[in-house]
Amino acid sequence: MMRSPHAKRWLAPVLLVVMGAFYSGAVPAAAPAAKPDASSRESSQRFVDGIAAVVNKQVITLHQLRTEAEAARKELERQRIPVPPQDALQRQVLQRMITDELERQEAERLGIRVTDEHLDRALETIAQRNRITTAKLRQEIERSGINWSDYLKTLRQDVRSDMLRQRAVDNTITISDAEVDAFLKTQGQRTANPQPSSAPVPAAQQNRPQILGLAQILVVVPEGAPAARVQELRKKAEGLLARVRSGADFAGVAAASSDGPEALEGGVLGTRPIEGWPDLFVKATQDLQAGQVSGIVQSGNGFHILKVLTRGERGGQPASAPAHAPPPTLAQPALPEQGPMMVTQTHARHILIKTSKVMSDEKAQARMAQLRERLAHGESFETLAKRYSEDATAPQGGDLGWLTPGETVPAFEQAMNELEVNQISQPVKSQFGWHLIQVLERRTKNMENEFRRMQARQILFEQRVGPAFEDWLGQLRGQAYIDNRLDPESSSRRR
């Protein structure tokens, strides 16, 4: 499916993996008496470097792990998060490196490549959401002690993960009209019957959306784990909770022991409108103030310990600011407030050719050029879309219906907006592949009711996409050959 209004990047920033060639861990024979040249010394050093993990056919060496662990240590110190013991730090970093390598390999398989254009667009988005220029963003990043090139490498990974999620996960999440109706009804009841409070709420603030910032410590429970193993992992979670309640730094415990992808950011999950969190998290923290910690919360992923970082109103002052904040990333912006909304909608259709290892960018672009030439000679757009398009709309002749601004990915929307009615675009590239777009008609409409439904659909999507992406990563890991030399229990050797 082409539509993807959700450009959210919920995953926390991860460190860049620089993967090397496969080297044996054996010790070489004694060197001759003559002093070896620089290249020989480098080769020998790599030879004895040792292996930290093997991911399918790719090796992560101990040298690479030590380099990334040192970078992680510096970042923890920058965020004033207690640094775990070296063995725990290396285990956490290696798990993150393995996940990153799996994502890199899958992106390569799907033909997903993050270009400089993608990176520039991401920087502009982050700057706009922080209401600053990209130049000011760079100043703020460097002032915080982060090297700008390192930040760009991390952001490139964020964009790649986002593109992977859009390709592999977004289209598997379906929000029905009945679910939207039920959500809006629930929201209406909350507005009509607000929670009692000891202080009156000013009328101007009554309709402001509530925001909630959370961090977590996660103990993952493998799918299909026997009851004894589940109980063992619950005891582990209870032990971590006892440490936190005894005064241990929450972020430090998360960095050392959490299985969540955001562990080395102190477990920070981010801040969003309260409706954007899973209901399970909202209920577990509804009576907590900023700085307080929940009990054990069990989900399909395992056992969570949640800490409220912020609680307040969008447009107002939060109850508290998080003690540990990672650098700006592609986080989802807060939803705009309701009100009349006159919107220009576009009725469009398209043909999509996806890229992959078999269908390169060059081949896909060339095929699109051929199809456009056939359209110029009078062939039917609908017929060619039914025959050649690889989008779910192919049976409908590529018809996307009426599109509202923000409902498609930026590259598609920008090209569509530049077209006149009945005009056909040049081949357009997005993270989904290459498109030919035709605008059929345009209209201006008051979208207030539709926008409320779109907001509700987006909130429901946000609640589900994070867990769905984690499940997808788990499946990717389970299908891979992983030999983790530091933590053999986490290895997977199914290939």
Automatic annotation (TrEMBL):
One of the record's GO molecular function terms: peptide binding
Signal peptide: 1-29
Localization annotation: Periplasm
Enzyme Commission numbers on file: 5.2.1.8
Catalytic activity: [protein]-peptidylproline (omega=180) = [protein]-peptidylproline (omega=0)
UniProt entry keywords in alphabetical sequence: Chaperone, Isomerase, Periplasm, Repeat, Rotamase, Signal
Annotated PROSITE patterns: PPIC_PPIASE_1 (PS01096), PPIC_PPIASE_2 (PS50198)
Pfam families, sorted: Rotamase, Rotamase_3, SurA_N
Start and end residues of each PpiC domain: 209-310, 343-441
Main location per the UniProt record: periplasm
An annotated GO BP: protein stabilization
Region (Disordered): 314-336
One GO CC term on file: outer membrane-bounded periplasmic space
Summary of the function given for this chain in its UniProt record: Chaperone involved in the correct folding and assembly of outer membrane proteins. Recognizes specific patterns of aromatic residues and the orientation of their side chains, which are found more frequently in integral outer membrane proteins. May act in both early periplasmic and late outer membrane-associated steps of protein maturation.
PANTHER family linked: CHAPERONE SURA (PTHR47637)
Entry remark concerning the domains of this protein: The PPIase activity resides only in the second parvulin domain. The N-terminal region and the C-terminal tail are necessary and sufficient for the chaperone activity of SurA. The PPIase activity is dispensable for SurA to function as a chaperone. The N-terminal region and the C-terminal tail are also required for porin recognition.
Name the UniProt record assigns to this protein: Chaperone SurA
Organism of origin: Parapusillimonas granuli
Lineage: Bacteria, Pseudomonadati, Pseudomonadota, Betaproteobacteria, Burkholderiales
